[in-house]
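Field reference: sequence -> structure
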Amino acid sequence: MHRWLVVVALVGANSALVTGLGGHAGLQHGHGIVKPDRVLIGGTEFMPRFATFLSNSLIVPAGAVVTLPPDSTWDAIEVAGTLVVSRAHDTTVRFIHLTILPGGRLDAGTEADPVLREVNLVVRDVPIDTARDPFQWGNGLVNFGSQTRVGQYKTPFVELAEDAQAGATSLTLVSVPVGWRVGDELLLPDMRQIGEVRGAAVGRESPVTVAAIAGTVVTLSKPLDFAHGSVRDPDGGLVLRPRVANLTRNIVVSSENPNGVRGHTANIGHAASWDVLGNQSIGVGRTRNEARDSTSTDLRHIGTNQIGKYADHDHHAGSSVAVRRSRANSYIGIGPDSWAKVVHGTHDTVVEDNVCVDFDGGCFVTEDGYEIRNVFRHNVAAYSLGNGREAQRNVEDDCQGCEGSGFWFRGLHNIIEANEAWNNTIGINLFSKLQVNADVPGAPGGMPDTSFDSNNAVPMSFRGNVTLGGNRVGFELWGVPPFPAEDHVSAHNRNRQVWGAQLGGNNIFLRNVTLIDSGGRSTCIESSSAYLESVEVDGGQLRGCRIGISGGMASRSVRLRGVVLQNVINLVYTGLGKPAQSILQDVRHLPLGSHPKQYVRYGAGAVWQTGEPYGKFGYEAWRSGGGSAPVIINWQGTGEDYVLLANQQERSLPAPATNVPGSLHNRFFLPESGLTNGQAWDKYGMAFLGDVFDEGSAVELEGVTGGVGRPGLDRPLGPPRAVITVPNMLSPATVELQRDRPSIRLFIMLTGHDEGAGQDVVISVDDGRPVRVPHRRGDVDQRWHTTTAVAPGTHEVRTWREDLRGKKIAASELVFHYFVENATASPPRPVRR
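Structure field:
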């Protein structure tokens, strides 16, 4: 019998000593309150005190210091004092449950006194006792107190000084790595453009280790399977050198059987602190990368895929001024792992210099949305390949973060710098939707005393990150408010280098960005204009892609400054309508290889002719009267400025009329037929994309298709006007039941120069009392008003605008007519804005 078992006799005293030592926040929130038989975790969950009923237990009471023997096996270890890992010999300890109670400490090395010997912490393969542990916090290492697991520091990854060819048996690095040794396992990402061969997935070297190392030269245990070359721009300029990471660490936390019952690790509660450096986690983490199935709070259902059992989980630890760091570790997934390093309801921690590979769901995660002031710096995430679904659908199906993101940040208000994502499905995913809102500590170490809106949070700093060789997307954003993503590099990702995902409220703001493709296959920046509020690129280069920016050029606000574009097609203005603002300043366009010069594709290219369907030109392209939005400042460095107009905007072309009352789309067109663009512009201020040009004044710009340039930056507009587009005299008005009364809806388009004009419209029907139609939230250039003037015959409508003082603007007054054939009312149609 081990001499350590004499401590078991202290179990009764131990219970008395540790009860209620949870710390002030633990007491308030229920994390870490110790009872005789359990430790409370929040208001409903708990973890049993396993050492109180398992006979083969090591109990370290408060005030005691116990050193682990070289080799031992336990059912449970409970630490209220100090449990020490020796610096003098290797240590292997096997356990089912290792619990550090509030006030207890696990000393497996400190920054001043690291453990340099081999240490193995092994979670045994034993069934979970769900009768005693229904929330399944056991079967792992759980820290409510303090743990320092500081081993030997190893440089996490290094750049290669030169490209490595297939069959190479050595690597030359740009610097000497710290702590690398013979036998260390290495990881080299696939630097190639994904999809160079149709259907090709990301490549993966077969296992390779260090056979010898001398300075910057590393001899490999086997020849390389394929070439690892630098990422270069289309002109051969260096973008990214090849990389190599080290996965080996001298302190190893593992599951005895990764295919059986796995272990997990967690730091829980305000009283918890941790300093974990030089650890390898392998095959740890029980939550699978599929829909969560958790135990219900009433215990009527026992979960089969319990949430929160990750490889390394900071769980509702709040904020503290104590040391809370996870540095220079490696996380290695085996099988359908969910997440590796998870920060959940926790603030002011440091996650730095770590390497993570093969976690299906993702490597580095902020779980709920209100995690703030954490530092994620210089970490590598590789080969998270996920379930192939998109982020929002996964969250809605309780499979959050299952898509395979190297970095999955639902909590955004953190420092995110110099991280690299290699060969994941998605490199970095900022998911600013469906978050949890909660109070947060206003200062480090404080209580949650400050209201925090997770939905409008942005990173404190997002700088110098790299997303490389992703199987789908490099950098993905979901509903993120505007913030500068600085010095970001996305290269050789299969479909998109940057994607504003299909969820409203997206803003893309890139500063000094480098987006690189090889062979013109992907899109550098893509988002549907329907889901994107703004796109701004301030400096940098978008090169080698099939399309430089697609969809985003028709968002509400576009601004490109000092950007180099070299793609098959650089910019595509498509989507619904036009941007409210589009400024291309000091933008340099270059052709890509032998491809023709396609710098800007504007409009549909063709022009509408009377009798043709409207739809192919985009119904909403006629909805705005504010002047052509895109302006070009200093075209190709010539110093010349232009307003960009589509071919369809030429004055002599016919303009479409609203002659089909049953179609809500047609409310954007003219209330009379037979007009040219020029006539419609002069009379109503309405035209395709909100402007017109005279054929003789247009300038053909090299590489611009579907449009022309009008010299100068003036956008001449008429007076402010309110145009009734539907109903009109082209077809009878539609009478509907509105609040059980026969009514007609009048659709109004605002046109002309808005400066000095109020947002309301004044309207009078059949010389009746003037009615003010207010600006509603979400309206831009459209208003609508319901009238009860439904008697058969012709009706007159007068509209005008007012200045900011409420005085009528004389030049704005217009007169319209509509007719009613039959006052029989139909059910109302929904109004889509």
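Note: Helices lie at 11-18, 24-29, 391-396, 677-684.
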